[in-house]
Amino acid sequence: MQSSDLKKLNIAVVGAGYGGAAAAKALSLLGATVTVYEQASRIREVGAGIGLRPSTMDRFRRWGIADAIRKVSSPSDYFEILTATGERIMVEAWPEIDAFGETTHLIHRGDFIEALLSVLPAGMVRLGHKLERIEDRGDGAVLTCANGTTVEADLVVGADGIKSVVREQLFSAAGPVFSGEHAYRAVIDIDDASGMVVDDNLRMYIGRGTKVYLLPLRHRGQVSFDITALCPDGTWAPSVTKDDLLRTVEGFDERIVDITRGLDMDTVNCRAVYDIDPVRTWHSGSVVLLGDAAHSMLHHQGQGANSAILDAGALADALQEADSVPEALALYQATRKPVTDELQRISRQGWSEDEVDEVFPGQKPASQRPAQRAEV
């Protein structure tokens, strides 16, 4: 689209998470008028650290915000996978380093979203706007929020997460899919990591039915300590005790057991793990899905946040390359959906048949079954 046409676009982004904030930055750089509508009264990210891949850092560089991310992250050279007792299975450099001239950066989720929001103009993000209804009018859309606000936009970007209202009302009524897993996440001081963190590289320890991740956040003197374990309880925020966690790491390196024993349970984020089945269509002529709203995936490949950022970049690119908004949305989906479909698929391959059968005798959690047909 011509620069003059892009500057006339009024864009509403639903959701101020990673994808929504990144989309707001990328689209505002095109000259469009962008407003972000977020249901929360304040932005707060809890949980763990994540790795920002070289392709993601390259996007930040192109948007002029890489320095803001580097200030609150640590560069990492490689990741390592080990047995439960610490024998090395593999060690590998992060992919894409040569292609983009960047390395992976490890960052706390809270620092990441704060950094993204800090580079948006004041007033662009409007908190306390919970979307209740979206009406697609073909050449535009109308949002109705719970506080009574009505918003008209030429383009709506649904970046409202795994429980997306935009997706449910316009593209797929299918709900999130339980993976058969729990994730227990805490951020601890390096001094409490039993000497297991000596550099800036991610390590994953694999035992039967359990994986433990140690992700250094050395720029803040901390470590993201994550336990992922098979569990049949699909309660979204399950109640878990210290003894439950200790049972999941039984047989692991005694230092991991010690870290678990020392956790303050009030600081541990406990969640059942969900994703969604692939959605056939992400867009209409004036509404488009992005990030978890389009392709929420399990965390085994560490690609959820990265995918949302790359979505935002691809959407901005498509608007520049295509002749109209509908053509741009079709180009965006054609560019990104094959990639995220594959990431969703391989992210579900987290456990062996024997491990799944042990926890789910005679059955499988939905995410472990053969791939569903994409929703119409």
Description:
It is a single chain. The chain is an alpha/beta fold. 31% of the residues lie in helices and 27% in strands. It has 13 helices and 18 strands. The strands form four sheets. A seven-stranded mixed β-sheet has the order 6-5-14-15-16-13-17. It has a five-stranded parallel β-sheet with strand order 8-2-1-12-18. The protein has a three-stranded antiparallel β-sheet with strand order 3-7-4. The longest helix is centred in the C-terminal third of the chain and has 23 residues. This is FAD-dependent monooxygenase. Pfam families: FAD_binding_3. Keywords: FAD, Flavoprotein, Monooxygenase, Oxidoreductase. It comes from Actinomadura violacea.
Q: Biggest sheet: strands side by side, in what order?
A: 6-5-14-15-16-13-17
Subunit arrangement of the protein: single chain
Number of strands: 18
Cα Rg: 21 Å
Alpha-carbon distance between the termini? Answer: 29 Å
The proportion of residues forming helix, as a percent range, comes to 25-40%
The parts where pLDDT drops under 50 for at least 5 residues are none
Mean pLDDT: 93
Give the helix tally.
13
Mass-distribution shape? globular
Strand content: 25-35%
Q: Please summarize the sheet with the most strands.
A: 7 strands, mixed
Structural class: alpha/beta
Summarize the structure.
InterPro entries: FAD-bd, FAD-dep_Monooxygenase_BioMet, FAD/NAD-bd_sf. With 376 residues, this protein is of the alpha/beta class. It has 13 helices and 18 strands.
What is the element layout, followed by pairings?
Blueprint: H1 3-6, E1 10-14, H2 18-28, E2 33-37, E3 49-52, H3 54-63, H4 66-70, E4 73-76, E5 78-83, E6 88-93, H5 97-100, E7 104-108, H6 109-118, E8 125-126, E9 131-136, E10 141-145, E11 150-153, E12 155-158, H7 165-170, E13 177-189, E14 202-207, E15 210-217, E16 222-230, H8 242-248, H9 254-261, E17 269-275, E18 287-289, H10 292-295, H11 304-321, H12 325-347, H13 353-359
Parallel strand pairs: 1-2, 1-12, 2-8, 5-14, 12-18
Antiparallel strand pairs: 3-7, 4-7, 5-6, 9-10, 10-11, 13-16, 13-17, 14-15, 15-16
Helix pairs in contact: 2-6, 2-11, 11-12
Domain FAD-binding: 10-343
GO molecular function: monooxygenase activity
Region (Disordered): 347-376
